[in-house]
Amino acid sequence: MATGQATLRQAGAARARRRFPRPLGAYAYLLPASLLLAAFQVYPLFYGAYVSLHRWGLVPGEFVGLANYRAVLADPDFWHSLLVTLFYVLGTVPVEMILGFALAWLLFQPIRGRALFRLLYFLPYVTSMVALGLVWSWIFNANFGLLNALLRLLHLAPLNWLLEPRGILTLLRGGTHLEPWTGGPSLALLCVAAVTVWYYAGLHAVVYLAGLSAVPREVLEAARIDGAAGWRLLRRVILPLLSPTTYFLAVVATVGAFQSFALVYTLTAPSGGGAAGGPLETTKVVTLYIFNAFYSEFRVGYAQAAAFLLFVLLLGLTLLQMRFAARRVTYLGGLQGGNEP
Amino acid sequence: MRKHLGRLRARGRGLLLGRLGTYAGLLAGAVVTSFPFYWMITSGLKSNLEAVRFPPTLLPHAWEWSNYAAAWSAAPFARYFLNSAVFSLGVALCVTVTSALAAYAFAYLAFPGRDLLFTLFVATLLVPPEITLIPDFVLIRALGWYDTFAGLVLPLGASALSVFLLRQIFLGIPRELHEAARIDGCPPWLFFWRFVLPLGAPGLAVVGLLAFLRAWNDLLWPLIATSSDRMRTVQVGLLTFSQDVSTEYNLLMAAATMVVLPTVAAFLIAQRQLIEGIAATGVRG
Prior knowledge:
heterodimer, A: about 350 residues, mainly alpha, MetI-like fold, two-stranded antiparallel sheet, 15 helices, globular, disordered C terminus, B: about 280 residues
């Protein structure tokens, strides 16, 4: 009897594993996607390395070894753009995550209209960054913008918002001069960061809400019966259960913030035309630096070398996050289905 | 008894306060999220004078619907929309077809090197866009595709993430169906055509819509892969328009509203499936 069941189970497993035995046909199904991925994702990786090792302007030039990499690392503007990016990442990622979680927690309560709220929070994420960037530029406009109109109505001094190169610490101290390091990120960069947070908080809320909804009711009930409520429930039960979601969002958001282009570009491109990243390059994040070297200065090999350096930096950062997470992220067998990276 | 009642009432009050706080927080979030959209639409319907007037008006005094016609003809927006439609629909179609085929092979066909190939597919997700940008640009120039639709569409025409997502969806199709089809001698292509595609249709729609949204909203690739006004997409067109009409904020907001409309409409139609699809993958554009 027992052996009979075992054979049956074996037969079932074997049958489940068996697929259509048509090897050549299978490659035909894979061909279109493989071809495109190979041509535009894999090959560029190697070709990019080749480009970065050559003097490459409007036309390909001679092999120069690591000279492009050395030149990037020796350029103070590159390091400045990394500092700007660091301010930007620190000003966006944690805020997005906290706001996203707060909204998700509110949405998780027994409320009416959850679908409508969720839809509204999600709206920016499906909308063009160029259009929204222009709307925010209009709101931040120093002459006719809504924010300065509100300040005027409150009898407060107007601000230059996206045109303000002075650091926020300088402004808080009432300083009038530009302080390169001690002034902190410029008010313009803070505006860009605020718009970024506005754009992504809803996405984080939706992903967190999916994580919260995947927590089994029994776990929450058991925690309640054991007397966990309010803050303690959140701190001791919910947040640890959501740690895979938090980890996933932190990695994706950090990498995304290092790569953001369209919003920063639209918000800081001067209206008369010209290079984005102003005022006084205080919003020139590293992607703008690379884009500028490539698109405006035609230093193709140089820009590619900078892109590889950014890639190495991001890889290192992700590995760091992984090591940090290994100690803190708790997986509860399959709870977070679909959300593990 | 009275003490007990008092405690109950206090608890009820606490609950009510908590409920009110929840709604207050949700409403605040909703207002902050949607206000820029409101401001874009209403600014786009004001006269230029009213748009810059102090104090600002919450609703237009006179609704200037003619702003849309004025913005539409102030730049070749008809051409931009056509370009964006061809570009985005092309990407959506290309991604859906290539991903469905590949996902089907990974889910249902047996062939040597399947697991290795699948790992390679997923590994392409690790290649960041800033690395491939310049080589892709050099490549489409070498192929003679610079400033053409082929050069715009094909580099975005396959997505390992979509393959991964569709494979999961295809694997969710009941195994018994596959068994029955195999026993009845149904060839793989027929099973794909008659069962997998129809049953996976919702997943295909999500993958196609995500690809459409990504292409429609993309700025960087169209900026680099095209040069002529004739090939500009709406995003590049809107950006250059904003630099040309920098002081006519009402026209700019009307143009922005038009550019946003197709994606918002697509989102409203399929919002539940889209939100769940994105929540499951956490893609970030």
